[in-house]
Every structure is written in structure tokens, then in C-alpha cells.
Amino acid sequence: MDSDRLGSQKLEDLAQYLRSSVRPSDIDLIQYNIKPIKRAAVLVCLFEGDNEDLRVILTKRASSLSTHPGEVALPGGKREEGDANDLETALREAKEEIGLDPSLVHVLGLLEPFVTKAGVMVIPVVGILPDKNAFTPVLNAAEVEVIFDAPLDMFLKDDNRRSEEREWMGDKYLLHFFDFEVDNKKHVIWALTAGILIKAASVLYQQQPEFPERRPKFWSANAADNDNTALAS
After folding, report:
1. Is pLDDT above 60 for 28?
2. What are phi and psi of 93, to 5 degrees?
3. pTM to 2 decimals?
4. Are the C-beta atoms of 128 and 152 separated by less than 8 Å?
5. Which of 76, 108, 159, 219 has the greatest count of CB atoms below 10 A from its CB?
6. Where does this protein have coiled-coil stretches (predicted)?
7. How far apart are CA 9 and CA 5, in angstroms?
8. Residue 223: which CATH number?
9. How many domains, the chain?
10. Which of 171, 220, 231 minimizes the C-alpha distance to 38?
11. Beta carbons of 56 and 150 less than 8 angstroms apart
12. What angle do CA 184, 164, 144 make, to 5 degrees?
């Protein structure tokens, strides 16, 4: 999608800033001190709300799924053999899960990866949806129960946030939970999804969160151990 179709000046300015702030292409595993492990990508899809606020598309995973049932997530999933790169993974998964046509999304680049305790490297792909009205969600009931959107700046604020201290291999960190209600439905955005959105909001707004973040060390690809079994849950 061409930049002249982004819509408002605010989105144009955001796109210009993001192009200079996020990685433009696929992330090379060689630069990280880890062996090639399972890889996934999620789409941080942003659009301008009615109040000119920046919002992000989220889903609630189907309760029938074997992993993380009923949890809030960003559209995305594991990379498949036919995917050319992380961008293709994120866009393919978004289309499969919520019917988002890749041609509607202006992809700007990638944030640095997160590594889960199970040893999956998750690449956040940042994109802009210039025309929200052009997107008609079609939910894959086998994977998604609900689609909704939330203001991105809420992930920098201390309002409606709580945290729990956890420990992994002697490292104490905070697990953040954000409570959000829309259409009389309450959602809890937490763990890796919350961590990615805190990072995305920090980059986009060029601000640090109002709260101490204390990220787990295993989220950083550079900090991951060469022995992938050390990342197992």
C-alpha cells in the first residue's frame, strides 16, 4: 500500500517516524546468541480512532484451543514452511484468524523479538490500517471468539494495571495485567501480549511507562541461553 493512501496527517507522521525506528525487514537469527528455535510473528495493527487516538486490534482466543484458551492476543501465529518472512507470517495469520486483507495494511517494519519460556521467538510486525471502515472482520471460530480494539497509550499508563512478581531461574520480574472493558465485556491483557504492547507504545509515543516494567530476561533474544532446553516451561 502506498504512503499517499495512509489517510490523516497523524498517520503519515507516525509512518515516517516508524520507518526510522523499527527494523525494515526479516530478523536474522545469526545476530542473536541462540540456536534456530521455533519462530512466530504477531501483527501490531494500528489505526486512528474516532477521537484521533491510536488504537490496536486485539483478539480473544477461542476457549477450545489447546494453548492459551480464552486469552487476549495479537493476531499471529507460528511461521510455516511456505512463509517467505515474518511479515508474511503475521499477515497470513491475521487473514486466517480475523479476515484482515493484507492489502489493507501498510507494514512499516519489525520490533525486536521476544522469546517465550517455551523457546518460541515471537517477532512483532508493526502495521497501519489507514481505513478502518474498509476492514470487515470475519472471525475463524476455531481460533478466535472476539475481536476488539484498545487505545495503545493505555499500555503506558498505571490506570487499570496490576502486576505480579514472578521468578525464573533466579531472575525476578513483573508480569503486567491490564483490565479493559468494551461492549460490556471485560478483557485482561497480560503476559507476552502486554509486554509487546508496552514496547510498541514506548517506541511509538517515545515515552517510558508510568510504572516499573522489570521485564523477564528470557524475553530478550540476546539473553537467551544457547541451550534451548533452558527456555522450557
Report:
1. no
2. -65, -40
3. 0.87
4. no
5. 76
6. none
7. 11
8. 3.90.79.10
9. 1
10. 231
11. yes
12. 40
74 falls within a domain: yes
Q: Domain for residue 145, yes or no?
A: yes
Q: Starting at the edge strand that comes first in sequence, how are the strands of the sheet with 161-168 ordered?
A: 161-168, 171-182, 185-190
Confirm whether 33 is domain-assigned.
Answer: no
Q: Which domain holds residue 101?
A: 3-28+38-231
Instruction: Give the pLDDT confidence of 141-166 residue by residue, as tens digits.
Output: 999 999 999 999 999 999 999 999 99
Nearest to 196 by CA among 141, 150, 137, 139: 150
Whole-angstrom distance, CA of residue 191 vs CA of residue 107 = 25
- Domain assignment present for 59: yes
